[in-house]
């Protein structure tokens, strides 16, 4: 049975690696499995970079170990329920269009503004703005719970500690644009808006090594110049939000006060100075709401 499992596993890898690599893998894999010592050992989850190597990893055991780690993290961080697993990222992306009523006068060719991503998956997206609070517990919590999120940073709040967000980026979080100084965009000239948006594109590229494609205007306020400026700086999408999470409550845009498949949830890098709680408190609240309603948190960029 172990051999069959391994062969299947190798076949899957083989499809990715090509036939020549498959042959090599099969030889290597069978060689190890035939060693009676190896076969007699109970399957332990392989440690990352462990000497056993990838060829003897049992996917079922690995999944089980991952689930056990998630249950332990749920308990450790005080979540009410184990977060639901998001389905695989869609292979073909739906076309993203501007939400009705959110268009600017001449929107054609400008980046779409949307609050919800078109999908039938029971997923929502977590997006976190600004950057004032830099709580290392929060980064650890999200990493251990494997909850994806997207950061929209405003440089004036972040520049005293880029390292905090670099460490966050290293956990798989994408860093996106929320302007240099968090000004009310429609109150600025096109040129000033461009400085705010392109300036932050340059800063993020310099500090984090990647130029964002997502931009969120401060307060969700924008005009045609904002979208033109954003486009000229390389922005492809302008996701805003359909719900907002706080440590003690949710706020919804829709009359039904509910979540919907593909909804974008906004929250902030804030702590006790601004909120009735910490960032981990906020995550406990939003995850209880999301999980109770049967949703998983997926990564926004996977759907765009
Ligand atoms: Zn903001």
UniProtKB/TrEMBL annotation:
Its name, as the record gives it, is: Polysaccharide deacetylase family protein
Give every NodB homology domain span: 122-304
Keywords attached to this Swiss-Prot or TrEMBL record, sorted alphabetically, are:
Signal
Species whose genome carries this gene: Streptomyces bambusae
Q: Which CDD domains does this chain map to?
A: CE4_NodB_like_6s_7s
Q: Which residues form the signal peptide?
A: 1-33
- InterPro entries per the record? Glyco_hydro/deAcase_b/a-brl, NODB_dom, Polysacc_deacetylase_ArnD
Q: Give the top-rank taxon of the lineage listed in the UniProt record for this protein.
A: Bacteria
Q: Which Gene3D superfamilies match?
A: Glycoside hydrolase/deacetylase
Q: Name one Pfam family in it.
A: Polysacc_deac_1
């Amino acid at each position: 049975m172990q051999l069959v499992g391994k062969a299947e596993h190798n076949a899957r890898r083989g499809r990715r690696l090509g036939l020549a690599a498959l042959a090599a893998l099969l030889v290597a894999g069978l060689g190890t499995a035939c060693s009676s010592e190896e076969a007699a050992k109970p399957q332990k989850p392989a440690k990352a970079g462990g000497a056993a190597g990838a060829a003897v990893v049992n996917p079922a055991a690995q999944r089980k170990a991952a689930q056990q780690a998630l249950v332990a993290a749920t308990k450790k961080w005080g979540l009410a329920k184990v977060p639901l697993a998001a389905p695989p990222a869609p292979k073909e992306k739906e076309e993203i269009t501007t939400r009705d009523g959110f268009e600017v006068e001449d929107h054609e060719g400008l980046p779409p503004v949307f609050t919800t991503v078109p999908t039938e998956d029971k997923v929502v997206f977590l997006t976190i703005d600004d950057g004032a609070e830099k709580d290392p517990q929060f980064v650890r919590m999200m990493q251990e719970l494997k909850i994806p999120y997207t950061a929209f940073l405003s440089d004036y709040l972040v520049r005293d500690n880029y390292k905090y967000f670099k460490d966050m980026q290293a956990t798989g979080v994408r860093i996106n644009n929320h302007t240099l100084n968090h000004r009310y965009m429609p109150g600025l000239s096109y040129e000033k808006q461009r400085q705010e948006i392109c300036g932050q594109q340059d800063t993020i590229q310099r500090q984090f090594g990647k130029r964002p494609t997502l931009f969120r205007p401060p307060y969700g306020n924008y005009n045609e110049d904002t979208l033109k400026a954003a486009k000229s700086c390389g922005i492809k999408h302008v996701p805003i939000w359909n719900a907002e999470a706080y440590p003690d409550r949710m706020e919804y845009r829709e009359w039904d006060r509910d979540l919907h498949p593909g909804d974008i949830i906004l929250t902030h890098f804030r702590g006790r100075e601004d909120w009735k709680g910490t960032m981990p408190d906020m995550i406990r609240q939003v995850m209880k709401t999301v999980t109770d309603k049967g949703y998983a948190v997926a990564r926004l960029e996977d759907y765009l």
